[in-house]
Write a structure and sequence with these properties.
This protein is mainly beta. It is globular and about 50 Å long. The strands form eight sheets. The protein has a five-stranded mixed beta sheet, with no helix packed on it. The protein has a four-stranded antiparallel beta sheet with strand order 2-33-32-31, with no helix packed on it. The two termini are 40 Å apart. It has two helices and 33 strands. The chain is 6% helix and 44% strand. 48% of the residues are buried.
Amino acid sequence: MKRNFLSIVILFAGIALSCQQAPKTPKNWQWRGENRNGIYNEKGLLKEWPAEGPQLLWKFEKLGEGHTSVAIANEKIYATGMHGDRLILYVFDMSGKLLTEKEVGKEWNENWNGTRSSVCINDGKLYIFNALGSLFCLDEKTLNEFWKKDILTEFGGKNLQFGITENPLIVGEKLFLTPGGEKHGMVALNKNTGALIWSSSGTGMPSTYCSPLYISDQSVPIVVTWFSGPKKEGEIRDNQIVAFNAETGLLLWSQTLPSENDINPNIPIYHEGLILSVTGYRGGAWLHRLRDGGKSAELVWYNPEMDNQMGGAIIIGGHIYGSGHAASRSWHCVDLKTGQTKYKTREIGRASVIYADGMLYVYHEDKGEMCLVKPSPEKFELISKFPIKLGTGNHWAHPVICNGILYVRHGEALMAYKIN
């Protein structure tokens, strides 16, 4: 009797422990991880993949056109795609079962067709921003529309050559977007109602495909983004990185970052008082140091070689890792302190990159390969790679990692790989 009772106690204790340790998806979700720096706080991931690649758990091949990343919250997976000219939202459970699909509105089909901005999930609401400038706020449970705003029309902005590619930023009750109008360069909206909280003219120049970044550890809360700049002699544009007081919209400072184009999709990366900005078209990488509690900034160094267009970069262990676009089309390791290129290699060219559990996950834009790379300032160390054979179009979507699963989107195909 005692033995049976003890067995029952142990059984239920084990069940309780397993329930406590079971991974949970976050409540809220935004693009490129918790701090928008491409770093995912995952543990226990594989340090090497089988020759054929990690196990494919499930796939879905009817997303339509687009290169948005998935969003994951409250045990559901969200992705968007375009069919015809319609933006469709897909909702999956964690096993990959399609729960529902919903037509949200129109989407961009003028060039490089498809969805651009990933779903933002916050406090029971889904925020979907299309490339035409329409912002939709939906109920997370019912998918009913709470409100909708045409950002460009309301705030005097003009759409961009390839359509808006901005991922909305939510901090507290504020939702930040960049209409890029002469009078309304950046706006902060109430996330629950869409009402305007503040507007700032910024530099008076158009937006430039960039998603805003929030910085909280200075004397003033800061929102940083890119704006386009006027053309100088030849084809050079004086694009700018701009900082606003997140509470009031006051323009704090701007810094000029010249390149041959006004296409600057890479979100700035913040690290211990430093802001890294990277852009393609023979732009390069700039590092600025915040001064006066964030009210000003100064240039620390400029590296013209690492001209990543839209794949992002990672700062880890005092070094920067990312690819070049036009100047080199190479993989780079750059010293964060000095800006010196430690090495570059063409084993990986243009690519997007994220980081988790000591490893870099690099999605090769040209070859369509997913690569596992060990970050090292001494030499390039490619550990494993496998081809992404499903899907269509460009390999532009940034990968996502959640609870030991790597999510890769290639056009119409979404794939989930077990990496733990």
